[in-house]
Design goal:
Elements: H1 3-44, H2 51-58, H3 62-69, H4 72-85, H5 97-104, H6 108-135, H7 138-163, H8 174-184, H9 187-196, H10 201-216
Helix pairs in contact: 1-2, 2-3, 4-6, 4-7, 5-6, 6-7, 6-9, 6-10, 7-8
């Protein structure tokens, strides 16, 4: 290899390395902002938390918070999306690992048990944000309603997936199946039993899966 080729390769490696470092730094900054917002919203409430306080807690400039997260409602939405996906980023439902596992599973009961585990894990992350939403202004309530509407759409897809197994109880239409799962997989429902009534999360998961199987399957 001549020196020109070596220089070209070295330059490509350096650029790739620099790009990787910038991407990692950007992700670390974003995560610091999300962590700071979660902490402050939980401690002080949504209305009492300013973007300047989020920036100070995250160790970044206020302009950085706005550049990375947008205005405060958009920041709250990012917190919710991150809690739902469990990855630090918004992940479409079809691309989540547990959804792919459920779709690949031919048995309806095992689909529902896998989903109950995902719900338990997800709502442990969402519970603090639900408390923020309950005490927040209308702009936060609208974010929460938007998530609930999207969840309802996703449950219609799950109902279709369950129906394709041929294991749904006779007499149930897909809207009823979707509504039953939507109502019982809500973070509000989780908080009622786990936080208010003191159920261990694992007990909630088992009860949820058993309830779905009894109500919906043959």
């Amino acid at each position: 290899m001549n020196t020109t080729s070596i220089g070209l390769v070295d330059g490509q490696v350096k650029r790739q390395y620099d790009t990787s470092r910038r991407r990692a730094a950007a992700q670390a900054t974003r995560q610091a902002i999300l962590d700071a917002a979660t902490q402050l919203f939980a401690e002080r409430g949504y209305a009492a938390t300013t973007m300047a306080q989020v920036a100070e807690c995250a160790g970044v400039a206020v302009d950085t918070v706005y550049t990375v997260a947008g205005r405060k409602p958009a920041l709250f939405l990012q917190l919710v999306e991150s809690a739902i996906s469990g990855t630090g980023d918004a992940v479409p439902a079809a691309e989540r690992a547990y959804v792919r596992e459920m779709r690949a599973e031919p048995d309806a009961a095992l689909k529902l048990r896998r989903y109950a585990r995902a719900v338990r894990e997800m709502h442990a992350r969402l519970a603090p944000l639900l408390r923020v939403a309950r005490a927040g202004p209308p702009e936060v309530a609208e974010v929460w309603r938007g998530i609930a509407r999207r969840r309802a759409d996703n449950m219609r897809l799950l109902a279709q997936d369950l129906a394709a197994t041929g294991q749904l109880r006779r007499g149930l239409d897909l809207e009823e199946v979707a509504d039953v799962i939507w109502a019982t997989n809500s973070p509000e429902f989780y908080c009622l039993l786990v936080e208010d009534r003191g159920w261990p999360p694992e007990r909630f998961e088992r009860w949820l899966a058993d309830g779905w199987c009894r109500l919906l399957l043959t």
